[in-house]
Protein: Formyltetrahydrofolate deformylase
Organism: Mariniflexile aquimaris
Amino acid sequence: MQKITILIHCKDRPNIIASVTNFIAKKDGNIVYIDQHVDREQNIFFMRLESEFSKESFSADAFRDAFRINLADIFDMKWRIYSSARKPKMALFVSKYDHCLYDLLGRYNSGELNLEIPFIISNHLDLKPIADNFKIPYYFIPVTKETKAEAEQKQLDLLEKYQINFIVLARYMQIISEKLIAEFPNKIINIHHSFLPAFVGAKPYHSAFKRGVKIIGATSHYVTEELDAGPIIDQGVTRVSHSHSIEDLISKGRDLEKIVLANAIKLHANRKVMVYNNKTVIFS
Amino acid sequence: MQKITILIHCKDRPNIIASVTNFIAKKDGNIVYIDQHVDREQNIFFMRLESEFSKESFSADAFRDAFRINLADIFDMKWRIYSSARKPKMALFVSKYDHCLYDLLGRYNSGELNLEIPFIISNHLDLKPIADNFKIPYYFIPVTKETKAEAEQKQLDLLEKYQINFIVLARYMQIISEKLIAEFPNKIINIHHSFLPAFVGAKPYHSAFKRGVKIIGATSHYVTEELDAGPIIDQGVTRVSHSHSIEDLISKGRDLEKIVLANAIKLHANRKVMVYNNKTVIFS
Amino acid sequence: MQKITILIHCKDRPNIIASVTNFIAKKDGNIVYIDQHVDREQNIFFMRLESEFSKESFSADAFRDAFRINLADIFDMKWRIYSSARKPKMALFVSKYDHCLYDLLGRYNSGELNLEIPFIISNHLDLKPIADNFKIPYYFIPVTKETKAEAEQKQLDLLEKYQINFIVLARYMQIISEKLIAEFPNKIINIHHSFLPAFVGAKPYHSAFKRGVKIIGATSHYVTEELDAGPIIDQGVTRVSHSHSIEDLISKGRDLEKIVLANAIKLHANRKVMVYNNKTVIFS
Amino acid sequence: MQKITILIHCKDRPNIIASVTNFIAKKDGNIVYIDQHVDREQNIFFMRLESEFSKESFSADAFRDAFRINLADIFDMKWRIYSSARKPKMALFVSKYDHCLYDLLGRYNSGELNLEIPFIISNHLDLKPIADNFKIPYYFIPVTKETKAEAEQKQLDLLEKYQINFIVLARYMQIISEKLIAEFPNKIINIHHSFLPAFVGAKPYHSAFKRGVKIIGATSHYVTEELDAGPIIDQGVTRVSHSHSIEDLISKGRDLEKIVLANAIKLHANRKVMVYNNKTVIFS
């Protein structure tokens, strides 16, 4: 039994669903999940579909080729077909904050995450003992103004060497360069510690305290060139009051950050996110 | 342009989705919404589908007949096909509490609800002025031990006369008889003022206060013979603390009741709810 | 039995609590509620206190005088003492949206609000039938560029004539002038249909849709000269997804607006809000 | 500078607050936090107070004695006075589930928890490597029908030897005996994986799935003799839908369990919880 996941988006027009489901039926596939969405403003059609194939002779590559010719080219689709056999590989970037790292490695060890973490990159040595405890390689790549280009090249080399599929910035406190973003478009997940678009940039808990908001939040999003302005994957919030100090906001926020980032990682790793027009469609 | 909504459930087996979408394509329909669910424990397949037909010659009745022969009989489906042309008719049952009534009539007047309210039934006269303000007929049908059967017959006569599709108990403080439940299976929506299955029965806010819970809730569900045990449509919760008295819980609960009941009504009226095994599938 | 509520804020220094509680004990008062807060950044002390006096001879005015001399002057307090005997008077300003109006008048009629609504002001005639139903005077004061000053004078005359204590803008679609704000400092409550400080200004649901947020919100705040930047009283949020259109956001947002505005009104009317540095302390 | 926390509850009567605050003022203490609550149904008064003493000569023991004679005996108070100098000691009991353990040890290492964890007890060896990583002693005490009494004695010996103040059952899958409960009254914190009082006992996620609830929860509570019926400290909830399998509920529930348990531990360790009539007063 082989299982594939298909993600499609294209200009909306009649008969896409029937054409795709028909195609799969002819290939002896059994659709076990289908969900679709139409953005009526932009007239864009989105679909996510999981199908099982029980025939010995099924070849994912042959299926891809047939799909391209019979469907993708005709409907002018943007599409991806993933085999469930391969787990995505995720690189973890961290700096000094340890809460997201502990949380993710705990989940990883428990088998909760459907992915592999070949290594951790950090611009500091502080969190190396945690990586050691969890027996995950930890690459210390310091970043200074002078070494920025060199450091980035080291990162790119590692990402290539380990064939990394996507990157997670678990409170990594460095700006990601255009080059790295261009190499991993909509494949770098950041956790920002505010309810975006409120409090973009540095020290959002301080800004939230100053504004006197009654609810704080955290936002996981794909990194784009504009700071904290990429497509939002998930958000979480929690109530606060005048009695909470900035330190209280930071402490309460940590729980939000952990959960919102973990959610985004799971959605991405399970191929449930599609991106267009700087927004996401989440098929959960 | 005509639009229909199809709800299906049946034993899961391969090719249902492809067969249905293919059938609609052959009838020149354009699928604008499809969602599906499989209960893997029970091996039951569920689907909700909206399709538009632009041909002048399209007949919903002919479509129903063809659907029955070509699909429903073959897959042994339980199915319903609704035309969007007809708004469902809803009867409102109330007693003395006015908050759900104000809320629903406010929404109704604003055009937020896709349904008709031909009349209100009550076992008390208290809320008649509100019905009068909103210019909706108000039938006062008192219920006593002696008159219970007679009262129920009056209710049934009204429900039949106005061709009511479903009933909403907006804090109606009378037990609904087996007969009425049998006439409107999964078509009577109740709002219970607790987070079911906690605090079944009378005075749930008092029980919640006594137990010292930190969160209270409200639950909208279809009425079945067993008290407060029918299929759950929606639930809502809000935080409380030791500082809240029973009166505070009642006051905070009112806002939950209003929203949770309104949500359930909208889901039902828009044909987004399917019921099986005393549970609901909500295609929202 | 008379009951008073005392609100205090001043520079923090030792013995304020003991001095105040002692003073009340000497006046034969029984403290039934006390809560306090210290803003450690600004070194400001806040207290809210409810006290009951059972002696026939108790005079709120005499108490106020003694409080001023013995406590307020010494600690350089900003303070208010309210008698529970007097309900605050609230003026409702509306335009064309009816959901907050229905909600508030429903609550008012049910006795849920501890206040009086002497009249409604609107720059449109659309909602007059609702005011008529609820038998509340409705003053139609159209506002155009030319008549703005004159219209405002009419408003001020009404506010004075009815001895209004605070104003609620229930989706009133006009900018409030500096003059009115100056007359009612921290006494004009607005409901903004976004999670402030995100999406300040017009059409926040459209902006939220465009940005692709996964949670929308509503914010009740006091009106200050800067648009949507006044002290926040309460906020509420609800989850949304890619499947929601702008119309869906507007519809879901209505429920948030109703509840968040009603919460703010109750907090204000029950003298539970203190304002300083453009923030609120909420003693709930 | 010394700081103490005072917790009081007693029959409500006039002048308690003034008497206590006056007493502290006379001892040259500065009250930095005061909160109080009256259960009007039971006529019980509760207060939590933090006070700082800057005099060299201040003695917490002498203060306790004076408090007893001048206040506690007169008002017939149940009271506790804690010095902030001493961190409470917490014993962790675990079985095979690791998510709460990872979460708590991560928080512990980050300095988020104001307590000490001298050791971990488990009836299985599975989680020993985690304890080793975090360098916390791990006592493997297997429990069988035959060895139950002996195992419990070993536990009691360890609890005494390390002078443990309270116990946390982080998904410890054994019934706690009456003897242990009697030794640690309202000092054993359990995390139950449902929204109590719904789904008491084993396999609550399975029961929640079967009932078709739309929201699941977790509850932290003090252990009493009756199963899952002790005083509730905190609860958390999250939305679920028909599309979630039992495994999904378990996975989503883990995040609730972690946060709700951590919240309860923080509240308890910071002396913010008072218990009476099988309920809690939380001064947060």
The interface with chain C takes residues 14-15, 17-19, 21-22, 24-25, 30-36, 38, 239 of chain D (CB under 8 Å).
